[in-house]
Amino acid sequence: MDSLAGRTVSGGSEPGTTASSAGGPGAGGPTTGPVLAVGPLFLDVVMGGLEHAPRPGQEQWVPDCALTPGGVANQAVALSRLGLAASVVTYVGRDTAGRLVEAMLAEEGVGLDAVAYVERQSVSTSLFFDGDRAITTFGSDAAPPVAPGPAPAALLADLAGIAGSLDVIRAWRDSSTPTWVLGDVGWDPTGRWDPADLDPLHAVDVFTPNDAEALHYTRADSVAEAAGMLAQRVGTVIVTCGAHGVVAIGEERISLRCPAVRAVDTTGAGDTFSAALTWAHLHGLGLRAALSAAVLAATLTVLSPGGASSAPRPAQLAAFARSHRPELEGYDLAFLDLL
Predict the structure, then answer these.
(1) DSSP string, 203-269
(2) Is the dihedral of CA 203, 207, 211, 215 positive or negative?
(3) How far apart are CA 169 and CA 146, in angstroms?
(4) Residues 223-272: pLDDT tens digits?
(5) CA-based angle 124:277:34, to the nearest 5?
(6) Shortest CA distance to 61 belongs to which of 139, 129, 134?
C-alpha cells in the first residue's frame, strides 16, 4: 500500500508516531496474507430516497438505486478496495442472478476459489426511508463451512459460521501465524436471544454486535453495561450504535461519535466498518486508530445507495477524513499514513 508523502495524525497520536506504536493486538507492523469473509451472498436491489413506506397499489419513484452484490460481498469488496487480498466462503447460484453476482465480485478482485454452487442465487431488495431500511429477501442465509488449508491473516464471520467451522478455525489460531478472527452476530427473529448463541466467542478476537443485539443478548440496561459484560468473554468488544458511533472495550475504553451526515442508505455500513477495522488491524494500528478508520469508512458508505457498491477506496476515505476533521474529537487519524 502506498503511503502518503506527509504525516497527518490527530487525536491520540503525535506527529511522527508510527502506525504500530499505538499498541493493541495489531502492534508490531503490517501483516500480509489473505483475508476470508464467510457468510451468505445476495444480489441486492437497493432503492434509496423513498418518501414513505410502500403502499399497495401505488408506484413510487426514487432518486437513486443500486444493483450490487450484498451480504458477505459487502465485507469482501470493502476489504479488496482497501488493498487486501480478500476471498469469500459462500454459496453462489448457477442462475443468471448468480452469474451476475460472480462477475461483479471478480471485477472487484474478490477471490472465488472457496465458493460452492447452488441452483438459485439469493436475492434481496432494500428500501430506504425515514432514516432506516425495509428488506425483503429470497433464498437462504446459510454459508458453507470453511475448508482446511493455510491459515489466512484474518477471518470475518458471524458466530454461527464460526461455530460450524470450529475445528479449522482452532487449527488456524494455533498455527505459527495465528489467524485473527472478527465475529459478529445477526438479528434473532425468534426473539429468544439465547446466550448459548455467544458460545463461539472463545474463538474470536474482536466481537462487533450492534447496540440492539448487545442489549438483547446481555439483558443489560445500557450499551456501556452490555459492552462491559461482553468484554468479560472476548478480548475486544465493539458495539456499533449506528449514527451515534461506537462503544469499545479492549486495550482501553473508547467511545466515538460519527460525523454528522445525511444518510441515503445504511445498507452494508456495518460490514464496511468490519472490513476497515480488519484493514487497520492488519496494518498494526491500535484500537483507537482502527476504530477511527472504521467509523469514518462506515459513515462514508451511507452517503450513496448500496452496500458493496458504496465501499470507499483509499483516496475517498482520506478525503472524507480530512474534510470532517473539525468534528472528529477523540479520533486518531494515524491511518491516513497508510492510505
Answers:
(1) G-SEE--BHHHHHHHHT-SSHHHHHHHHHTTSSEEEEE-GGG-EEEESSSEEEEPPPP---S--TTH
(2) positive
(3) 8
(4) 999 999 999 999 999 999 999 999 999 989 999 999 999 888 788 899 99
(5) 80
(6) 129
